[in-house]
Amino acid sequence: MKRFFSLFLTAALAGAGFVSCSDDPEDQPVVPTDVEKVSGIETNYVLGLHEYLEITPDIELSNENESISYEWSIDYETVSTERNLSFKCDELLNDVNCYFKASSSTGAKIAEFKLSVTSPYDKGLLLLRPPAPTLSRTTIPPFRWARRRWRSAGKAKA
Length: 158
Known about the structure:
alpha+beta; two-stranded antiparallel ribbon; flat
């Protein structure tokens, strides 16, 4: 049994050695992409809710006659195929990953960035009330305040 196993292992290693020594075809040239560089896109953008994200990238091409296609992706969803981006931040309320891709027939360049959309109500609701001796405004955190009020109201009735 050991002899059969060692013979099988030797044959497998010899077969793998013959396959791994195959030559790569060197007659195929490596073609560089027509899009040499993408710049003008920052790494982080912080915007408020209902504000517009507008980006105009600078693209350097090696062949000006080549047709280039563009793709803007925000939160893994394609939002535009134009060169310049104009996007209203009305549905996002967190940090999302984004990218811009400029591609031609010979390849593509990708520029990644992060978008953070904030709201004035992220930290809670600010209530103004008549001046008191010690406090003139009250901040209510989201959801926790309402739960406490309902629990305390239920205990008071019981």
